[in-house]
Amino acid sequence: MLVLRTSIFFRKFSDENWNGDCAVYAFHTGSLSRLSKEACVEVSLRTLKCEILTISPIRVVNETLEFAPIGLIDMFNSGGATEGLSFINDPSGCTVRIEARGCGRFGAYSSKKPTYCTVDSKKENFEYNSDKGLLVVKLEGECNSRDIIVIY
């Protein structure tokens, strides 16, 4: 059994927008969980079985939005697809900009449903699971650098 505690590790690498909570994506089950900074997760594996967890700090963007990029969720090293993350808050709403690379399904934790998403300035369809907060945008075409914009 493995016990996962994220707050000690991520303190070194996070910014002022992190409150200690993390999004945890399990590759084989495709599940997304939110882990508070006080909590821990127990992971039990059967003999010769494995699970790959991607852990991403949840940033507090504003009083109504929290966000954490997961990356390309169909790849073992999903977080490797995220190269940059920034936020813009203004009176008309909030914009999340993700610099990503690769192609496939890009996943993120989002505390609310976006209004729309664009990939390289082109409006794209997205899936949003409000129960888990899982946002998925398909990155199709060439597998190069992408600019994902999420508008709230």
Walk me through this protein's architecture.
The protein has one helix and 14 strands. Helix content is 3%, strand content 57%. The strands form three sheets. Strands 3-2-5-6-9-13-12 form a seven-stranded antiparallel sheet, with no helix packed on it. A five-stranded antiparallel sheet has the order 7-8-14-10-11, with no helix packed on it. The longest helix has 4 residues, at 7-10. The protein has one helix at residues 7-10, and strands at residues 2-4, 18-26, 31-35, 41-43, 53-62, 65-72, 82-90, 93-101, 104-110, 116-119, 122-124, 126-129, 134-139, 145-151. It is globular. A hairpin with a 4-residue loop joins strand 12 (126-129) and strand 13 (134-139). It is an all-beta fold and 152 residues long. It has one domain (2-151): Sandwich (Immunoglobulin-like). The model has no long low-confidence stretch (mean pLDDT 87).
